[in-house]
Amino acid sequence: MGNEEGETLMDTGPVPHGRRDARTVADFARRFWQDLLHVPDVDDDAHFFALGGHSMLATRLMSRMRKALDADLPAGLIFDHPVFADFVTRTIAALGEDSAPADERPRTSGRVTGPVSPQQERLLRIEDALGPSPVHSIVVPVALDSPVDGAALRLALHALLTRHGALRLAFPTPDGGGAHQQVIVPPWAPADVELVERDMPVSIEGQAEDAAILKDVRLAHLKPFDLMRGNLLRAQLFRRRHAADLLVLHLHHLAVDGVSQTVLLDDLAEAYTQLVTEGRVHMDNSDALTHIDYALHRGGRQGDMAADSRRHWTRVARDLAADLAAAAEPAPRGMRYVRRGAELDTSVLHGLHAWAGTEGATDFVVATAAVATALAALLGRRHVGIGTLLDNRAHAAHERTVGPFANSTLLAVPVPDGATPRDIVRATQAQLAEARRCADSPLDDLLGPPCAAVGLCPDDLVDAVVAFDRPYRAPAESALRMSPLYDHGDLLVPSALGPRLSVTLFAHDTGTLRITVEHTEDPADPQRPDAVLSALVDTLRLFAEAPDATVAPSPAAVPR
Q1: Burial 223-246 (b: 16+ CB within 10 A, else e)
Q2: Distance between CA 460 and CA 492 in Å, rounded?
Q3: Can you give the pLDDT at residue 99?
Q4: Could you read off the pLDDT of 411-440 as tens digits, one per residue?
Q5: Structural domain range at position 175
Q6: Is 234 helix (H, G, I), strand (E, B) or coil?
Q7: How far from chain centre, in Å, is Cα 219?
Q8: DSSP per position, 122-164
Q9: Where is this region: Disordered (predicted)?
Q10: Going by C-beta distance under 8 Å and a sequence separation of 6 or more, which residues neighbour residue 23?
Q11: Which end of the chain offers a freer environment for a tag, N or C, measured as fewer CB atoms within 10 Å?
Q12: pLDDT at position 517, please?
C-alpha cells in the first residue's frame, strides 16, 4: 500500500538511532495510521480503535513502527495507548528503553531445512497420532466478480508457491523418534500445479449446481495432503451457470494461519493482475523471511518461562478451576458438532461502536465480553474461560510472511454480580493485554504445570473459543476481484476434534452482525446450542443498548 504520492511506506527504510526524535516518530506514526486506517488526517486526540482499528491492524502498525525505527517496540503499545499523542509519547519513551541488540532479531538464513516452530510441533503431534487425515486442512472459497483466464490463474498459483516457502513445506518422518523437521521443497512446474477446472452444465438447476459443487469441494477437502511431498496448496475453479465463478483454495494449518490467508489472496490478485496486464509476474521476494527463519529465531530464545508469565497463568488456572470445582459435573463431551446461527440488524453494531470505541475496545474485545457474560449466566460462573488466537508476528519482517504464527491463548474473564457491560469489557481488555504479554509459547506449555497442580488439563478450562471476522477486501485495481464466501451453513465434514463450544462473529460491510455457534452434540440436552445462541443474541443487544446497566446475576451452577 502506498500514500498519495505513490511511495510505499515500508520503503522509507529504518532511521538511524540518532534520529529517533519526536518529530520523526510522530511523522512515521501518523503516516502509518493514515495508511492502515484509510483516513486522510490523524489528530493528536485520534483514537486508533475508534477510527476502525482492530487487532490485526494493530499488529501491522507495530510491525511497521519497529521496522521504520529499527527498534524492538512492545507489541501491546498500541493497545495500552490507543490515542495518537499518547502513542507517540510512549513510543519515544520505549525507544529510550530499547536494548534488544540487532542479532536478537530474526534474520534471513537462506536455509531450506530447519526445526519446526512450537505451533507446528503441536499440529504434528496430532498428525502423527491420527495418520493421514484432513483434520488440519483449510478451505477458502472465493467468488470471482468476473470470468478468469484458467491458464493465467494456474501461473498465478505457481507464483504463490514460488514466493511463499511455507506453501512448499514437507515434514519428513523423524528417525527413531527424533525431533520434527521442515523442508522447503522446490516448486513444481506450472503445469503440475493442482488446479482442477470444472464448467458446470448449462442445463443444471441452481440448487443442483450448488449441491454438485459442494460434493466436489467436500471430496477435495477429504483428500489428505502428502506431508512428505510438500506443496500444501490445491485449487478448484468452478464456472457456474447461476452465480459468479467460484475459486476454492485448499491449504493446511502447518503452512498458514488466518493472517496468511489474507496475504495469499492479496498476492494471488497481484500475480494474476501482472500476468493479464504485463504478461509476466515480477513480485520481489529477495529479502523475505520464511517460517524456518522464524522457527530458528524462536528456538534460539527458548528458555525458562519468565516469573511474571508463570504468575499470570497460575492465576488463570486458579480462577477458572475454582469455578469448575463449584460447578456441577460437566456433561459428557460429544464427538459431533451442531451449528446454529443468527443475524443481528445494524442497530447492534452501531450501538456497540457508540460507546466501545471511547473505551479503546476492539470489536473482538466487546464480543468476547458479551460471550463471557452470556455463558456466566448459563453456567452459573464468576469466571469464564475464553480461548482465542493471538497473532505472533512480533517483528516487522514477518508482516507478510506466510506461516502458522498464531498462538492459542486463554482469558479468565471475570463476570461478578453487579457488573455492567462496560465493566466486563474493561476487565476483558485487561485480561487480553496481560495474555499478550505472556503468550510467548503454545498454550499447553503455558498452562500445563499450573493445571497439573489442580488436577486438570488445559482443555478443561476452555468454556468457548471466540473469533471475530470481517470481509476481505481485494486490492484496488486488481484484475482478480475476489469475495470470500463465509460459510454459516452445515459443517463441510464432521469433526471429532475441537473445543466444546466455538462462537464466531462476522461483521458484514452492511453493518449487520452474524453469530455462528458450533456446539458439541449432547443427546441428553439437544436444545443446548439453541439456548447458547439465544443467550448470546440477548446479551449482545443488552451490550449495545445499555452499557451501564447491571447484567443479570448468575443462576445456580449447571453442567457445561
Answers
A1: ebbebeebbbbbbbbbebeeebbb
A2: 26
A3: 47
A4: 999 999 999 999 999 999 999 988 887 876
A5: 113-298
A6: strand
A7: 26
A8: HHHHHHHHH-S-STTEEEEEEEESS---HHHHHHHHHHHHHH-
A9: 98-118
A10: none
A11: N
A12: 94
Q: Given strand 181-184, what is the order of strands in its sheet?
A: 113-115, 181-184, 169-170
Residue 313: exposure state from Cβ atoms within 10 A (0-12, 13-18, ≥19): buried
Position 289 scores a pLDDT of 79
**Using the 8-state DSSP alphabet, how is residue 449 labeled?**
H
pLDDT reported for residue 541 = 97
pLDDT at residue number 360: 76
Shared domain check, 143 and 68: no
Number of Cβ atoms within 10 Å of the Cβ of 398: 24
- The verdict on residue 310 lying in a domain is no
In the structure grid, which three cell numbers stand for residue 380, read together? Answer: 452459573
State the Cα–Cα distance between residues 238 and 80, nearest whole angstrom: 46
User: Which residues of the chain have a pLDDT value below 70?
Assistant: 1-20, 97-106, 176-177, 284-287, 300-308, 326-335, 394-397, 440, 487-498, 553-560
Phi, psi of 73 (to 5 degrees): -75, 145
Query: Is there a single domain that holds both residue 88 and residue 122?
Result: no
Query: For position 367, what pLDDT does the model report?
Result: 95
Instruction: Give this prediction's pTM.
Output: 0.81
CA angle 87, 88, 92 (to 5 degrees): 115
| CATH number, domain containing residue 45 | 1.10.1200.10
User: Can you read off the three cell numbers belonging to residue 365?
Assistant: 474485545
Location of C-alpha cell 471466540: 466
- How would you class 53 by CB atoms within 10 Å of its CB: exposed for 0-12, middle for 13-18, buried for 19 or more? buried
What pLDDT, on the 0 to 100 scale, is given for residue 309? 81
Burial (Cβ within 10 Å: 0-12, 13-18, ≥19) of residue 22 = exposed
Question: How many domains does the chain fold into?
Answer: 3
3 state SS of 214: helix
Same domain, 289 and 341: no
